[in-house]
Amino acid sequence: MTQYSIGVHQLFQPPIPMKTFAVKKQENHEHQTSKRILVVDSQPITRDTCLLALRTKGFDPMGAESTQVGLNAIQLEPPDLIICDANTNASGEISLVQALRTHPNTAIIPIVFLLTSLTRSALHKSVLIGVNACLARPIEAEELFQVVSSQLKKQAVLHEHYARSPAYPSALSSLYQISDNTDSPLSQALQFISDNHTQPIALSDVAQFVGYSPAYLTTQMKKQTGQTIQQWIIQLRMATACSLLTNTNSSVEGIASQVGYQNTTHFFRQFRRLYGTTPQVWRNQRWQIVSP
């Protein structure tokens, strides 16, 4: 499959026109309200086998012939679950998973890798980057259905939990609504935060980007959104950290670095302030929630 690097900011940029790529969506009016499953596989036989098996079980499957085409489909409408042909040494698939895991809109989408062989090394690498489950080729329809159903049930539990917790603050929804609906400097500021919150950015960086003084930007942002720039940055970082804690086996220290904290102690302090516990305890609690 094509290898390339995907940045978080690419996920919700204006999508590449669908006519440019061979994305096949099988229409099934009987199951219009069923779960949407995206199957990303360069091999037509495997891809079509998955699509047929899923359709017969009442899902709404869509096929993509490459990671780039899959990204385009995700941009248009994030699916409920993704099945992806993968070689764990391929940068395209890995960077796609990492990008999905670090964006609040796609963080808890279950991802299933299709592997040639379920070796210990391949499984370990997949889990580390945030893959939820793996299946070996050739695909067995019943096994595919069991894995998909299990992952969707876990996702439903996570959705219910996050709806009652600050892991994904309601303010995040406002951020994306604001940044998507206007070209104002405040919208540009929010988009800049969304695109760069995993980097060590500060108020001064955002102010410089939009051409405002830090004090004026802070006043306007607080007036319009009820949040300061720093609060937006922290909330997005914490939401991303929660996703990585739930969906990967990365160390807490590594996650702190991934979400823009150069000082691990500072990350621990911010996390405890928001959630009242340490990142590791929070992770253990989340894993208990989604464990079979």
Describe the overall structure:
By secondary structure, the chain is an alpha/beta fold. It folds into two domains: 8-163, Rossmann fold (3-Layer(aba) Sandwich), CATH 3.40.50; 170-290, Orthogonal Bundle (Arc Repressor Mutant, subunit A), CATH 1.10.10.60. It is 55% helix and 9% strand. The protein contains 13 helices and six strands. It has helices at 44-56, 67-76, 91-101, 120-129, 141-163, 170-181, 185-196, 203-210, 214-225, 229-247, 252-258, 264-275, 279-290; strands at residues 24-25, 36-40, 60-64, 81-85, 111-115, 133-136. It has a six-stranded mixed sheet, with helices on both faces. The longest helix is centred in the middle third of the chain and has 23 residues, at 141-163. The protein is globular, with a radius of gyration of 20 Å. It starts with 23 loop residues before the first strand and ends with a helix. Mean pLDDT is 77; it is low at 1-33 and 166-171.
Present the secondary structure layout:
Elements: E1 24-25, E2 36-40, H1 44-56, E3 60-64, H2 67-76, E4 81-85, H3 91-101, E5 111-115, H4 120-129, E6 133-136, H5 141-163, H6 170-181, H7 185-196, H8 203-210, H9 214-225, H10 229-247, H11 252-258, H12 264-275, H13 279-290
Parallel strand pairs: 2-3, 2-4, 4-5, 5-6
Antiparallel strand pairs: 1-3
Short description:
The protein is an alpha/beta fold.
